[in-house]
Each structure stands twice: as structure tokens, then as C-alpha cells.
Amino acid sequence: MTQDDTTLGGYFSVHDRPPAWEGSDGHPYTVSLETEKTGDLSAPWEGFLVFPRWAQNGVGVVGHVETPTICRDRTQEAALEALARLDLHEVKHLLEAAIRVTGEGRDD
């Protein structure tokens, strides 16, 4: 059976590493699936993405951008599963939106 690497979770499964992109600001980014507890008893977990920004030489992380909350769910596992189902094209759009919102990585 061939595994599909067109979703975030599928990519992690097939390649055993996070996907990477060059952002519109010229910096390389990877992605991390993150969750936090909320005060909402009906959906006590929220999920979002963090994009570590790597140094141009790839030696280390020099910053990050993150998305707003993408999903809310009853369990941490369900929130992570929702993030894992994201299509990689959508993840790239979310990265670009996060770069625009924060202005991270711009050489002013």
C-alpha cells in the first residue's frame, strides 16, 4: 500500500521528517503541529501550526511564525488528527499568511 504524502500527517509518516518550504520572505521554514488546552469545556483542546524559521545556512532556528487556532476538539489526539489531515498546499498558504501577519523575516 502506497502512503499519501500530500497531507501534513502523511508527509511526516512517509518521510519521517517535517516538510520544508521557502517562505515569501526568502527564509527556509519547517512546520510543527501544536496543541494547547482551552477553558472551553465542550472543546478543551485547540490546534495550530508553528513554523520555525531557519538560518539561511540551516545551522539553527532564528525565529518562528504561527497560525491562529485552526481547530478545536474534545481531545488532544483529535486536534492533532485534524491538523495532520491538512493538505500541504493549505499548509503553505497558512505559512504565507503567518509571514504577512507578523512581518517576521523581513529584512528592513
Structure, described:
The chain has one domain (8-102). 30% of the residues lie in helices and 29% in strands. It is globular, with a radius of gyration of 15 Å. Residues 104-108 have low confidence and may be disordered. The strands form 2 sheets. Strands 3, 4, 5 and 6 form a 4-stranded antiparallel beta sheet that branches. It has a two-stranded antiparallel ribbon with strand order 1-2. It starts with 7 loop residues before the first helix and ends in a 6-residue tail after the last helix. The protein has 108 residues and is an alpha+beta fold.
* Rg computed from alpha carbons, rounded to a whole number of angstroms: 15 Å
Q: How many beta strands in the DSSP annotation? A: 6
Number of spatially distinct domains: 1
Order of helices and strands: HEEEEEEHH
Structural class, judged by helices and strands?
Answer: alpha+beta
Report the helical percentage.
25-40%
Question: What characteristic shape results from the CA principal axes?
Answer: globular
Regions with little confidence, pLDDT below 50 for 5+ residues: 104-108
Mean pLDDT: 92
The end-to-end span amounts to: 49 Å
Q: What amount of the residues lies in strands?
A: 25-35%
Task: Tally the helices.
Answer: 3
Note the main sheet: 4 strands, antiparallel
